[in-house]
Design brief:
This protein is an alpha+beta fold. The chain has 2 domains: 160 residues, Aminotransferase class 4, branched-chain amino acid transferase, N-terminal domain (D-amino Acid Aminotransferase, Chain A, domain 1, 2-Layer Sandwich); 167 residues, D-amino Acid Aminotransferase, Chain A, domain 2 (Alpha-Beta Barrel), CATH 3.20.10. Helix content is 23%, strand content 30%. Strands 1, 2, 3, 4, 5, 6, 7, 8 and 18 form a 9-stranded mixed sheet that branches. Strands 9, 10, 11, 12, 13, 14, 15, 16 and 17 form a 9-stranded mixed sheet that branches. A hairpin with a 7-residue loop joins strand 10 and strand 11. The structure holds pyridoxal-5'-phosphate.
């Protein structure tokens, strides 16, 4: 199947505005395709950004059968455009689809859709430091039926919008609150799929900690409430004595982050030891208090690396590295963003250039 492109006339196209807020400004075009049981995926189209028209009984509104992804296109220093490990996002998209009983997409077509969209909307890839074009592939269940069961019809769409640094203040430490009352996901559930329900389920606790002055929740496992899982939209890493980086193992209820995986591969080439372990919150807090843990940071596509300066558990604040950005966080941020923006050697062949 090929993608039909119906672009706006040149004189109707916009370019990335000087000032934008993440997630509220979108580029000129979008990709869509539909699925039904008879034709499979069909009608692959890139057309001007537009509203969708859905029946109010569409399954997605009632039973949350939906998945999404998040990746970025970076304006390289030579003026080109780089995608970072897009095939990993596509694979995760299809794993999420499978878990949510949704049809998988053709990997090559999905990648071609992303590349064609970015080529068309290249004026939207910002050139500012730390900025990028965020790409949001999504799939929703569209069958108009209220009976509980997997939908027969689906829509797959991809939209893009400029992104600056995710947290106000960029690479400055954030304060994180450990969830001691609420849980995000359970092994055997859908925590390792990128599906909207996981995020809806997290909102109450997130709002609660924001009111207390923290910016993110750190989730613990749902069975014992003892083992560390992940932050709202990031995986979490702990640095021991400036040289050993430890992150929770993939438990089945956390998202297998592509940034996490990239750091596990990249950090050893920079002289760090890395480990994936089951991490007990009490041990971690004791190690922060004793100074054995010298840095804590979240990692994910949106923020890349986000240092954690304060970790609060049961009303007690644990301050990490004097609430300052540590050397390891900065080093890893510089190296990973260096690969993404094309200023560091791409030893792992993670970059796919978009031409046009
Ligand atoms: C819950 C959750 N964990 C971790 C991550 C980090 O994943 P990645 O590095 O692939 O962006 C994300 C972001 O997508 C997320 O939403």
């Amino acid at each position: 199947m090929s993608i039909t492109v119906q672009p706006l006339d040149e004189n109707q196209r916009q370019s990335c505005p000087e000032n934008f807020a993440f997630g509220t400004t979108f580029s000129d075009h979008m990709f869509t395709q539909e699925y039904d049981a008879t034709s499979g995926w069909n009608n692959a189209l890139i057309s001007p950004y537009h509203s969708l028209s859905l029946d109010p009984s569409a399954a997605v509104f009632h039973y949350s059968q939906e998945i999404f992804e998040g990746l970025k296109a970076y304006r390289a220093h030579d003026g080109g455009i780089n995608l970072f490990r897009p095939e990993e996002n596509i694979k995760r998209f299809n794993r999420s689809a499978k878990r949510m009983v949704m049809p998988e997409v053709d990997e090559a077509l999905h990648l071609e859709a992303i590349k064609s969209l970015i080529t068309l909307d290249k004026a939207w890839v910002p050139a500012k430091d730390g900025a990028s074009l965020y790409i949001r592939p999504t799939m929703i269940a569209t069958s108009p039926k209220l009976g509980l069961g997997a939908s027969s019809n689906y829509q797959h769409f991809i939209i893009c919008g400029p992104a600056g640094t995710y947290f106000e203040g960029g690479l400055t430490p954030i304060a994180v609150h450990v969830a001691d009352k609420y849980r995000r996901a359970v092994v055997g559930g859908v925590g390792e799929a990128k599906t909207g329900g996981n995020y809806a389920a997290s909102l109450y606790a997130s709002e609660d900690v924001v009111k207390k002055g923290y910016s993110q929740v750190l989730w613990l496992d749902a069975v014992s409430g003892r083992y560390i899982e992940e932050v709202g939209a990031m995986n979490i890493c702990f640095v021991y004595e400036g040289k050993r980086i430890v992150t929770p193992s993939l438990s089945g209820s956390i998202l297998p982050g592509i940034t996490r995986d990239s750091l596990l591969k990249l950090a050893p080439t920079l002289g760090y030891e890395v480990a994936e372990e089951r991490l007990d919150i009490e041990v971690i807090l004791a190690d922060i208090a004793s100074g054995k843990i010298t840095e804590v940071f979240g990692c994910g596509t949106a923020a890349v690396i986000s240092p954690v300066g304060v970790l609060c558990y049961k009303d007690k604040d644990f301050v990490v590295n004097n609430n300052e950005t540590g050397e390891v966080s900065k080093h890893l941020y510089d190296e990973l963003t260096g690969i993404q923006y094309g200023t560091r050697e791409d030893k792992f062949n993670w970059i796919q250039s978009v031409t046009g």
